[in-house]
Design brief:
The chain is about 25% helix and about 25% strand. The strands form 2 sheets. Strands 1, 2, 3, 4, 5 and 6 form a 6-stranded mixed β-sheet that branches. A 5-stranded antiparallel β-sheet has the order 8-7-9-11-10, covered by helices on one side. The longest helix is centred in the middle third of the chain and has 18 residues. It starts with a helix and ends in a 21-residue tail after the last strand.
């Protein structure tokens, strides 16, 4: 019995020290690194898109070169704060993303985009992508109407568009007015006959959108002050007798995102001009 036990121990020891077959090193993993966890989809700046969207998935992501006809252009991608779900419209997280996109747009475009026929949009991951770890938001810019709703296509990047003269800058207009509603604002050269001119931006108070849209007294006062600074006029009660005004509020979506800048225009119902009214002074714009 002792001799059998001894032989068994020797046999087991020999099995443990056996050399690997020729051409192998005995390492089953062969030094391979473990695969990393898959990273969530994240869009990239510098691409354009055939349409504007509010949310994006990897499956729907079809970026274009900006020399192709497109509607929106991605100029920045930010990182959102961690949360259970994407920020809802009007929340602090959504407003923070819009502020970042609005600031980045000034640097990308080379000027103040609210003073041009441009609009900034925030695109979010879908809830499903968010639950999978996506924490980005996309900053897109579109060429838009004055009211911020229409988007028009183009076939070149907007990068640096506002560093010099641009047809997108707000200037002089030939408006069509029906009653108290402006139905069209056709951009024209300021040396052409016109009855309206962009004067600047008024910072509206942080009120409800319904209240902003409901009355005109507050917008009238705000825009008259903007016009006074633009045309070098006294900002006093007589401003209402020097010219009229037109205002374009942010869209409801922009308002929920925290945009409070209202576009203000000097306007005449009957008088036509063939010059800009910037720094025109009281002699050109007397109390009437």
């Amino acid at each position: 019995m002792r001799r059998f036990a001894y032989l068994l121990v020797v046999f087991l020891a020999a099995g443990c020290t056996a050399a690997p077959p020729d051409g192998t090193d005995g390492d089953l993993t062969d030094g391979w690194a473990l695969p990393s966890a898959p990273a969530p989809f994240r869009p990239q700046p510098g691409f354009c898109h055939a349409s504007l969207t509010q949310t994006e998935t990897a499956a729907d992501y079809r970026p274009l070169s900006c020399d192709q006809v497109h509607v929106s252009e991605t100029y920045a991608v930010g990182t959102a704060a961690d949360a259970d779900v994407p920020p809802a419209a009007g929340t602090a997280g959504a407003k923070a993303a819009y502020r970042e996109c609005a600031d980045e747009a000034v640097a990308f475009l080379g000027g103040q985009w609210r003073a041009a026929r441009l609009a900034v949009h925030v695109v979010w991951p879908t809830r499903h992508a968010w639950s999978g770890g996506a924490r980005w938001f996309r900053c897109d810019v579109t060429q838009s109407d004055l009211d911020g709703y229409g988007q028009s296509g183009r076939a070149e990047t907007l990068k640096g568009e506002l560093t010099g003269p641009s047809p997108l800058r707000l200037g002089c207009f030939a408006p069509s007015v029906k009653g108290e509603t402006v139905t069209e604002m056709k951009p024209v050269r300021c040396t052409s006959r016109h009855r309206a001119e962009f004067a600047g931006l008024w910072q509206a108070p942080d009120t409800s959108y319904a209240e902003l849209e409901a009355g005109t007294a507050r917008s009238a006062a705000g825009c008259r002050s903007v016009i006074a600074r633009f045309a070098d006029l006294p900002d006093d009660p007589d401003m209402q007798y020097r010219s009229g005004w037109i205002s374009y509020n942010p869209t409801r979506t922009e308002w929920l995102a925290g945009e409070r800048r209202v576009r203000c225009f000097i306007y005449f119902a009957e008088r036509t001009l063939t010059r800009s009214l910037k720094n025109a002074g009281p002699d050109v714009l007397p109390v009437d």
